[in-house]
Amino acid sequence: MKYLGYANLPITATGTATRRQLVLTLVLDQSSSMGSRNSTVGTIPTSISSSSSSCEAMVYNAIQFLGYFSPYDYIGVVPFDLIAYTTYPPTTSYANTTNGAAHQIANIQCGSNTNTTAGLQIAYNQIQAVNLPLANNVIVLFTDGVPNAVNAHFPVRSQKDTRYASVCSGGAAACSFNPCATQTGTVTGAVAQWSGFSYTPSFSFSGLSKSMDTDSSPTWPTGASACASMNATDQVQQGIANFPAQDTYGNSTSGPYDNWLYQVNSHTAPTGTPITPQGSATKNLGDLWSNYSTLGAGAPSNKFTSGPYSGFFRPDLPNTVGAVSMNTAVNEAFKIRNDPTYRITIHTIYLQGNGGDPVDRAFLQIVSNQPQISPIIYDNTAAAYANTYYNSAQQTGLWLPTTSTAGLTSLFNQVASSLLRISQ
Fold first, then answer.
1. CA neighbor of 242 nearest in space, from 305, 183, 196
2. Are 77 and 25 in contact (CB under 8 A)?
3. Model confidence at 15, in pLDDT bands (50, 70, 90)?
4. Beta strands in 232-355 (DSSP E)
């Protein structure tokens, strides 16, 4: 330019930074281990502290999370406990100050069981219904523990067999029961347990429930009225023959937790680790039942090993309910990530250690498709190992764990930051 007589030449340019439109569903665990709200249900918390319950901290941070996104994004909310709720599908009106997503979250009160599989299924249905294949389709799953609800078309027990029940002579013992039905049939719903994943016949079952708020209440088929009239505990133990090979949503009930035993393998978090108000510094991580082959009822298997239902997962032990619940949730996540049209990413936030339930190292890392299973705070000296369920053809989400309610703000912010990156 100097040859043309220009020593300086101003240059101007304009550009537009863009990112893909977002379709996101927050799947929020409102089970009883989260504790109760500190503020009035229906109000939006203005702050949290280290003494805030896990439920309160989740509500506060999930609402703050909404503020990162634009009016062009679709945001929905799926709260879940024993029942998963369809009340707020993704919409661009999520920021509405009268009845938007923030008010849906503010109405959460925590209680009941943990039906993670049904919550993920609703989120998947809702993303499909928005039908924007070119959008950034995302599920953000927040949970403080492991699933404990199985959704299925359960076969009614039509043959005499031996199983555990509290009504047996001498209390919780194995005894023989006559058939519930004179004909084959199924009853549809969710089976859960309140027994802390016990490997002994501790029968704090919740009975049959519907899986989603839009489902019909479970009804027993004709000929099974004897089981239908039992109380909630024995109805599950005696009325259902077994857990079938697939759940309601087509997921296999088999998977990485087939031979898993929960309330063993105790670990304590390092001294000084912040723990949730509902939590404990010492927790069980679980282990293969084959390493404890004589421990507990049904040992060493989650399946019947004899009788007419031999080889099927048994519904009469709490540990088995947990194992099958974990399997279906993992398989549900694989199905969602494997959808070639919507290419959904699942991000997971794990608040470890609440209540009396065990903590699990691998579960949410499998759900979010991590290449390696990293340690959690309760076994932080353990080595990472390869995730044999990792699929390189599927999206890998974030896996973000903490033991502190105060730490949730940072984790929700990390998810938001990853979603707001400018498109390349």
1. 305
2. yes
3. very low
4. 260-261, 266-268, 282-284, 287-288, 345-351
Contact 55, 92 (CB under 8 A): no
* pTM strictly above 0.85: yes
For residue 68 the two structure tokens come to: 């990162």
List Cβ neighbours of 186 (8 Å cut-off, separation of 6 or more).
153, 154, 155, 156, 221
Contact 263, 197 (CB under 8 A): yes
Cα–Cα distance, 199 to 4 (Å, whole number): 88
SS (H, E, C) 247-269: CCCCCECCCCCCCEECCCCEEEC
CA distance 364 to 330: 8
- Mark whether 164 and 311 lie in a shared domain: yes
β partners of residue 261: 287
Neighbours of 33 (CB within 10 A): 25
Neighbours of 193 (CB within 10 A): 26
Q: Which token pair is 201?
A: 């016949």
Half-sphere exposure of 316 (CA within 13 A, CB side): 29
Whether the CB-CB separation of 317 and 297 falls below 8 Å is answered with yes
CATH number of the CATH domain containing 112: 3.40.50.410
CA 189 to mean position of chain CA atoms = 17
CA gap 142, 30 in Å, rounded: 9
User: How many CB atoms within 10 Å of residue 220?
Assistant: 21
Q: Is the pLDDT of residue 107 over 50?
A: yes
Determine the structural domain holding residue 217 and report its residue range: 149-248+257-267+280-319
Average pLDDT over residues 94-113: 95
289 forms bridges with which residues in the sheet?
A: none
Structure-token pair, residue 36:
């109760």
Q: Are residues 37 and 142 both part of a single domain?
A: yes
Q: Calculate the CA 246 to chain-centre distance.
A: 18
In this predicted structure, the answer to whether residue 205 has a pLDDT above a threshold of 70 is no
Name the maximum alpha-carbon separation found in the chain. Answer: 106
pLDDT digits (tens, 9 = 90+) for 20-44: 899 999 999 999 999 999 999 999 9
Please check whether residue 363 lies inside any domain of the structure. Answer: yes
Q: Phi and psi at residue 282, in whole multiples of 5°?
A: -120, 130
Q: Which of these, 64, 114, 112, 125, lies nearest to 411 by C-alpha position? A: 64
